[in-house]
Amino acid sequence: MKSRAAWLGAGVAALVVGTTACQDGDRSRQDSEAKDTPGQRVEQAQLQSEKAFDDARDAQKEASSQQREAARAQEDVQRKQQELQEAQAQAQKEAQEAQASQQQAQARTQQAQSVAQQAQASALAAQRQAQQNFATQQQQQASNESATANQRLADESAQQQQAANPNAATQQAAIARNSQAPTAQAPRQEQQISGDVLSASAQEVLVSQRGEPQVRLKVGPGTQVQVDGRAASAADIQEGAQVRASYRTDASSGEPQALRIDATSRAQPAAPAPAESGESSPGVPR
């Protein structure tokens, strides 16, 4: 009731204001109202007040509806802001994870490269050792075959001389002793080799003779080296150059020790190699 009375009072006030505003504009209507009885004027005032109350109530409903719409819009804004913050946090987390994965991948790549380099170095070292062992075996085999051939020639010569002159037995025995002594020392005698340089450094020169197995000549302080007729070091010899070298097989290590190396930097026909890799054969009387 109090609320209704309050709305009624507000309607009356609005009606009075509206009436005052209309008085200046509509004098004829005031004249007709002046002729009405007081009861009719009160009834009209109540009707106008009720109408104003209805208008005010409708306005209040509209205001309440707009307020609810504003509240819902505010909730939507807050929800969108929260979703945006969550999306930003998720994106930052994924970026950090991607960066960590990239760092791990780089570390694994570097580790794999290091392992590959070590494996390649080991393979090269093993290949170099195998080539050196093969060359040493070939040299030893050639020396043994040369010694066997020399002994066979000496035996055949002795048999022929004995058949021709029975008194030559003593001489043949001396010849056999002379032939056996150089044979025992053959691996340590000076030998010759000619071929193409596969690689050269201050410590060694790798030579290939007419496509045969490679010979690795060790270079020492006493090795004489010439390149195109001028004194030089083994490191000055270019890959592909032609060389003619003399060497001696070391008795303890079994490695060829270079005594003299003559290198030609321009490609030239290789000089013919002496028979039996340059090994000297004991003289056999004819």
Quick rundown:
This protein is α+β, with helices and mostly antiparallel strands and 286 residues long.
What descriptors fit this protein?
15% strand; seven-stranded mixed beta sheet; 7 strands; disordered C terminus; 61% helix; alpha+beta; 286 residues
Task: Write a structural description.
- The protein has 286 residues and is of the alpha+beta class.
- Helices cover 61% and strands 15% of the residues.
- It has four helices and seven strands, in the order H-H-H-H-E-E-E-E-E-E-E.
- It has a seven-stranded mixed beta sheet.
- Helix 1 (2-23) packs across helix 3 (38-164) and helix 3 runs antiparallel to helix 4 (169-184).
- The protein is rod-shaped and about 185 Å long.
User: Strand-and-helix sequence, N→C?
Assistant: HHHHEEEEEEE
Helix amount: 55-70%
Largest sheet: 7 strands, mixed
How is the largest sheet built, in terms of strand order? 3-2-1-6-7-4-5
Q: Structural class of the helix and strand makeup?
A: alpha+beta
Quote the beta fraction.
15-25%
Mean residue pLDDT? 77
Number of helices: 4
Stretches where pLDDT is under 50 for at least 5 consecutive residues are 166-170, 179-187, 273-286
Oligomer: single chain
Radius of gyration based on Cα positions: 60 Å
Number of strands: 7
The outline comes out as rod-shaped
How far apart are the first and last residues' alpha carbons, in Å? Answer: 160 Å
Topology diagram in text:
Layout: H1 2-23, H2 27-35, H3 38-164, H4 169-184, E1 190-200, E2 204-208, E3 214-218, E4 224-227, E5 230-231, E6 242-249, E7 256-264
Parallel strand pairs: 4-7
Antiparallel strand pairs: 1-2, 1-6, 2-3, 4-5, 6-7
Helix pairs in contact: 1-3, 3-4
